[in-house]
Amino acid sequence: MLNSTILSYITFVYFGVFFLYLLMMLFAREILGRAATYVLIAGFAGHTVAITIRWVESYMLGIGHAPFSNLYESLIFFAWTIVLLYLIVEWRTKNRTMGAFVSPLAFLAMAYASFSPNINSSIQPLIPALKSNWLISHVITCFFGYAAFGLSFGLSLMYLIKRLDREGRGNIFLRLIPNPVILDELNYQMVVIGFLMLTLGIITGSVWAHSAWGSYWSWDPKETWSLITWLIYASVLHSRLVRGWKGKKIAVLCFVGFACVMFTYFGVNYLAGLHSYAKS
Amino acid sequence: MNKTTEKDKPNLPWQFFSSVRLTISLLIILAIASISGTVIPQQGQGAIEFARKLSPEMFRFLSFLDLFDMYHSLWFRILLGCLTFNIIICSVDRFPAAWKRFRAIPRPDRDKPFEDLPPLQAFLVKGKLKESADKVEQLFRSRYKKIQKKETADRYFFYGQKGRFSHFGVYLVHLSVVLILIGGLAGSFFGFEAYVNIVEGEEIDTVTLRKKMSPLKLDFGVRLDNFTVQFYENGAPKEYRSVLSFIVDGKTVEKKNVLVNHPVQFRGVTFYQSTYGKVPGKKVRLKIHRPASPLEITSLDVETRKSVPLPGKEGQFSVVKVSTNLMGMMGPAVLISVRPEQGDETSFWVFRDQEKILKRFPDLMSRNTKLNSSAFKPYTFFLDGLDAVFYTGLQVNRDPGVSIVWTGFFLIIAGFFVAFFSSHRKIWVRLIKSNGELDLSLAGTSNKNPVGLKRELEHLTENLKDLF
Ligand code: HEM
């Protein structure tokens, strides 16, 4: 189908973007960074068009539904939310160094969706349980949450790398990374956005489960793992807000949090449960 | 004196439960405990198979810890109880301070906030003191609340604030967490989860509880009037629909459609579409062939398990068993038993798709009289059709905690917005007359989001400059 062909090309665009950001960091050339941003915006535009085409194509097949219903579509949407959120942050902070740490996430999600033999990219009809407006709000909020946590992961990584920077160690790559205080503050903001979105995601998911299966919480592994993720990030917020933890401890907790996000997303498919639709 | 000693007296349980270190530990312990529940299958078939593979000691150890149903175990509930207690004590402990910060109105004529101002926030303007102060006040009143004003011969002070409710966001969030936990508890104490299968046309008033597998009588009846299922072209299911009638004292009170994602509620009990299937109906359509001159073919509608005389009056026969798909591949079939006037009873299966089966297994009938539809001479039986009816599988729940949980969900989101995206900003403006010019400066503090405060002060500075 047209949409998946375009999307597989976008994968390469994102790889190119990663490469440009990396070159910018290695050679400290503004022009490379600006090129990376423009290519990323172009790739994002193409990405958006392809998702729209997929939506339209599903209606032409007579099984129209929003493109958020299987693993392929969710990965594509995950990459889309990461790029969108990253572009907003880049625009607000006027700093491009994060690009080198975040664009690989988008690239990897796209590559996994497009080239893994286990993932079916065709448009499938919705089984009755997935026919719900709650599904759409559930997917959108969850993935914005995941994307914010992805950015927080990138920022934590930058924080730990930046600590290697010492006076007189003229490493351009390290010097370009913003100072730790800014990284820490930005990381906190990403965790707040992610926590809000994840909470909304869990809420919309349980309202949907309640209307589909009759119980808003059934300790299904995916539900439980999203709760585990939520608990981890709640403890991140409290250790920072109340106990005043900063920097390294928070960065490490954010790694744990993002590992939980990834397990909620992929690992859970190896455990049995209601969400097994994501296996196809 | 008395008061301070009272406060300094260590109240250990109180200190323990009001500590945020406990909160962080509990959150992490709950997270780790929950992991084990996703790795060890909980209840049901999976748990039994898993338990079989374990050594007896391991099994005893895991069951001792309730790890096969850990989310409902006592220790897990105690952990949740501790968290609830922690939240409540912590909030009670801190609320008075937040209330004070909410109520406090600092004096407008303080000079401390104006120390170390960035240069942009202090500037000289031209004009008369009184007139200028009025202009400043007007602008200030339109933006802020709780305006305080103080004037002396050569200077004016103004104080204003906004967003003081931001101190309560945290309490709203914590209250919601408690509500959600209470709602969950209420559901598990006062609700039930059950299921029932209803055959088209039939009425039930009893459902089966999932946990105990015991029956539960409802105080009304439910009849399935009609069931339909639609498929996509590729065979995947598209829609299931059960038309239910709710019956009280023999009268139909309400008629409703249940679809997946569209449950219906009746008297606090909710019905969800869960599965469906087909069961054979009461009627079977048969054709009976008796070669005589003239050749005789009789078509009959036979009710199952009822004796019917053979067309030639040689005895009685009945349909003993009905299968919608015999052995999972032979298609619809009925087991017919013939009791002649003399001789032994004969029974044999009759297939609807006789010809198809004969093509695949040509010598099936001659080898096995049980499968031979001509086993009772001189008759041959044909099955024209089965009367199959649908049954619907419904999940039947009652959960009086749901509305509490929904309230908690709504409030927690509201609380997040107050806690994260609002801040209590206090702004001071000072106007001093010096050498025919006016020295105007502004300062502010905020309980969070210093960047937002800085932006607001810059904006206000612009507006003040525009006044002159
Ligand atoms: C899972 C349950 C909990 C959730 C979701 C939660 C959520 C939050 C959130 C979102 C904030 C940040 C508010 C802000 O930005 O000011 C916060 C702050 C806080 N939480 Fe919790 N919390 C939970 C449990 C607890 C418990 C059990 C305690 C008890 C000690 C606690 C004590 C605090 C304190 C003291 C603050 C800081 C208040 C301040 O900034 O003045 N939290 N909580």
What does this structure look like?
Chain A folds into 2 domains: 121 residues; 146 residues, no CATH class. Chain A is 73% helix and 0% strand. Chain A starts with a helix and ends in a 15-residue tail after the last helix. In chain B, helix 3 runs antiparallel to helix 6, helix 6 runs antiparallel to helix 8 and helix 8 packs antiparallel against helix 11. The N terminus of chain B is likely disordered. Chain B is 36% helix and 36% strand. In chain B, the strands form 3 sheets. In chain B, strands 4, 5, 6, 7, 8, 9, 10, 11 and 16 form a 9-stranded antiparallel sheet that branches. In chain B, strands 1-18-17-3-2 form a 5-stranded antiparallel sheet, with helices on one face. Chains A and B meet through helix 7 and helix 8 of A and helix 3, strand 7, strand 10, strand 16 and helix 11 of B. The structure holds protoporphyrin IX containing FE (HEM). Protoporphyrin IX containing FE (HEM) sits at the interface of chains B and A.
Strand content of chain A: under 5%
Shape of chain A: flat
The unique ligands bound to this protein are: protoporphyrin IX containing FE
Structural class of chain B: alpha+beta
Name the average pLDDT of chain A: 87
Number of strands of chain B: 18
- Class by alpha and beta content of chain A: mainly alpha
N/C terminus separation of chain B: 54 Å
Largest sheet of chain B: 9 strands, antiparallel
> What are the segments of chain B in which pLDDT stays under 50 over at least 5 consecutive residues?
1-6
Largest interface: A-B, 43 and 47 residues
Work out the helicity level of chain B: 25-40%
- Domains of chain A (count): 2
Number of helices of chain A: 9
